């Protein structure tokens, strides 16, 4: 669908051609005007894809109307209507970009042919423009990405092609010396690419327009490899006031995230030294791991040593293992963690956060591995969870992580001990059921399962809500009922088989439990059996 403007000062021609166009192109939007001035006013408000206009008209003729048309990016086609007497006007119209002209009186077939050619030409141009716009959009999107990749490879020291080096030299031509500033967010997940680019734009705009502290030649970009970082190549000497203002501005953009600014040393050949400067700026950011009260850190004032692995020694492991075994609770575990960490940060220079985190991971993995009561699958799962830890943004985060993992191990051990004890009580009951006819005592059974008798007595009662002697008596009496029903042996013989050496005592216990003597119970049980047979 497209818009058509029909211009003619003769009412009969205007009405007749309007009806023809509405019949030929019912889906198109059709507007009419009686002269060039009226048509020009319409064109200033709306774009028409096809203009069909008479040449000779009062007030403003067709040629003057076309000359005054406002410029538009969208394509359009113009068809002139003219008589034989105005053929020279038609020739001039072609010079104004007219698609074609139609002689009056109008031949419908010829008009249709011209209209179809105009529509085809218009459609082809619209397709070409659409394709050009797509290509321009792709180019506009690709060029920044390409340049960002070049800058990212540059600061990371990755090798570049000759073409990329030429592009890089063009980007950095205005800056020979200066600092490299890193703005880094510390949070659990990477920023989305569009968000990082948006932040880069806002930070750059603020530095140049609002703060006025970024000089000509300096520039800002968001490297590809880490969307939590914005890099500023700073030509002049940054002052603390500017750096602190940047930190406040960026923190206000995302108040829920911690942001740090790390400033490298100054270089007089920044093109060659960028990878080193980038590493210095990142190292400066790491200072915030220990000094959380600030947001701006300069590499030259650093307090951390070069990266070096920290060995896990037996003292660290012993402190944490003792805390686990003594079940000291959350506060006790946190204190134990603080003690072992404190041994390694007792004096400056401090270890690199990544080295400290790696040491803690290895230490926790060793403790989890040594907890044999947990079983191999549980230990393997815990070690995997510990090993997947992201380096916390600060020392308190590392301590908290370690204490939480120790808490997980403590809880797992408690559950394992509970399960172990449940298994032990089942083993105890099975032992009693197998040896009830022997001279069993609480002390003898406790010794079999390596329990302290006092602890075993309390443990047995807590599990079964009955003490040991009562349980043993119940087992023996239930066996006695079965023996009395099934055998003709004398009562004293049954009592001896059950572990009762005094038949009178057996009789008293049996009657107390069932209200009958053993002989009375046997007699009643057999009569009932006969009655049912």
From TrEMBL:
SMART domains for the chain: HTH_ARAC, REC
UniProt entry keywords in alphabetical sequence: DNA-binding, Phosphoprotein, Transcription, Transcription regulation
Q: Does the keyword Zinc apply?
A: no
Q: Name one Pfam family in it.
A: Response_reg
Keyword Plastid annotated: no
Question: 4-aspartylphosphate occurs at which residues?
Answer: 54
* GO molecular function per UniProt: DNA-binding transcription factor activity; sequence-specific DNA binding
**Biological process according to GO:** phosphorelay signal transduction system
| Domain annotation Response regulatory: ranges | 3-119
HTH araC/xylS-type domain spans which residues?
Answer: 426-524
Task: Please identify the protein, giving its name as recorded.
Answer: Two-component system response regulator YesN
What does UniProt list as this organism's lineage?
Bacteria, Bacillati, Bacillota, Bacilli, Bacillales
